[in-house]
Amino acid sequence: MASVSKDLSKGKDSKVEKKKNQKPTPITAKKDTKATTPPAPKKAEAKKPEAKTAQKPAAKKADPKKDQKPKAAAKLAAKPATKAPVLSTVKIDRKVFQEALKVALNFVENKVTIPILSHVRITSTDKTAAIHATELSVFWRRSIPCEAKKPVDICVPAKILYDEVAALQADIATVELVVLADAVTVNGRCRIHTQPAIDFPAFPRFSGTDVDIPELGSKLKKVVVAAADSDSRYTLNTVCVDSEAGFLVATDGHRLHREAFPKADAKAKVPKVLIPKKMAEIAAKLKVAGRLTVGEEYARMPLAGGTMTARLVEGTYPDYDNIVPKKSKMVVKVSSAELLAILDGAVPLSRSSAVSLTINGKLIVKSVNPDAGEYEYSVPCETKKAEGSPRSITFGIDANYLTAALKSFEQETAEIWVDDPLKPTLINGGAVVMPVRI
Question: How far apart are the C-alpha atoms of 180 and 84, rounded to whole Å?
């Protein structure tokens, strides 16, 4: 064992001596080899991004929007905005222009799928401006004086333009429209975007036969309330102008209103036409007084210094003459004011506005609603009976329809014709209301 340990120690000593005797490799040679190898420049390049990342906190200005706004504002202030070229300037009397726009709003749809229908079209020569408005079934056009440098043909949002003109100071008597390529300014106060006039529906022109109807607006007001609204039977969404019989008629299938006017000359051969409910409503609202011109496809009437034109509705109108009672077994005369007051009290306690009327020397109005209660009230009346008529009669009627009839054909003393509980009732000679079940 001692000999083995001696041999191991000798081996170690010989290795140490060898290491000492070895010549050290020159350091310069190692440096040269490192310089020639490609990794050295990579280490130098890797240090550059570290310097950039250290500077990132100072570059936070690019991220938040708040820091960008002052720069944008500074740029706008530094670079003045280029003015859009002025195509024309139109000056119009404010009062006349505002009145025309107010009428135009009756023909503009608030909820439209076609954006151009919420606009008015303004065309002008050097001395006259024309305002157009439509919702496709009814058109309106009016010409007013103006001063224009060049002809204009633009479409402007109707409601916005009217509001801006109405908002002008009271002492401003003239509206100045400065027309740009895609906008218009109103007295330098605002800039309203415009639409191309080529997209606006064309105003229909036609020739026809004139029908004289005195107080046309007031007559239409009496009957249009009975016209249907968005009924699948589209002919009921109209007012029938029967020139040969001399009647304006409207019905929704549950009631009918009829108003007489002078018959047309038989030689004129004016056909029975159906005008849209929208046309009749506007004419009644603005109290049209004048003639109605009837063509093959259109009808027109003067309105608010302009012309209203509507497309006629095609179809066959119900035979209204057979619905109107020609006689009755009982005629009741009652104060209109008292009857209206009673009906107002009966409706809240009725089901679907249905009430019962009983005539037995007095008029008794009764309504019953199992979930709410009941109502009963009577009013004195004058009764005229035909031979063989019963002593008393009870029938059901829609209180809202009866109220509308009394207000449309207003009389101090209402006259109600009753023949049978299951037959139509005639009110004041112009309104017919169908019976209802109680």
Answer: 7
Contact 237, 277 (CB under 8 A): yes
Quickly list H helices, 105-149.
none
Measured CA to CA in angstroms, residue 323 lies from 234, 353, 432, 433 at distances of 19, 22, 8, 10
Q: Is 283 within 8 Å of 277 (Cβ atoms)?
A: no
pLDDT (average), residues 208-220: 93
Q: Where are the alpha helices (DSSP H) in 105-254?
A: 158-166, 216-224
Going by pLDDT thresholds of 50, 70 and 90, the confidence category of residue 52 is: very low
Whether residue 95 has pLDDT greater than 70? yes
Q: Which two tokens stand for residue 319?
A: 């035979």
Tokens 């009755």 -> residue: 328
Tell me the pLDDT band of 61, cut-offs 50, 70 and 90: low
Distance CA 271, CA 415 (A): 33
DSSP type of residue 317? P
**8 A C-beta contact, residue 381 and residue 332:** yes
Strand 209-213 versus strand 290-294 pairing type: antiparallel
Nearest to 427 by CA among 319, 352, 354, 340: 340
Domains of the chain: 88-199 (3.10.150.10), 209-320 (3.10.150.10), 325-433 (3.10.150.10)
Residues present in the chain in total: 438
Contacts of 430 (CB under 8 A, 6+ apart): 222, 257, 258, 259, 405, 408, 409
Question: Do the beta carbons of residue 324 and residue 337 sit within 8 Å?
Answer: no
pTM score of the predicted model: 0.78
Reply yes or no on whether the pLDDT at 193 is more than 50.
Answer: yes
Tokens representing residue 309 in the block: 């034109």
> What letters, b where the CB count within 10 A reaches 16 and e where it falls short, cover 400-433?
bbbbbbbebbeeeebbbbbbebeebbbbbebbbb
Mind listing the pLDDT tens digit for each residue in 295-342? Answer: 999 999 999 999 999 999 999 999 999 999 998 989 999 999 999 999
| CB neighbour class for 396 (10 Å; exposed up to 12, middle 13-18, buried from 19) | middle
Considering the chain, what is the average pLDDT of its residues?
Answer: 85
- Facing residues of 247 across strands? 242, 260
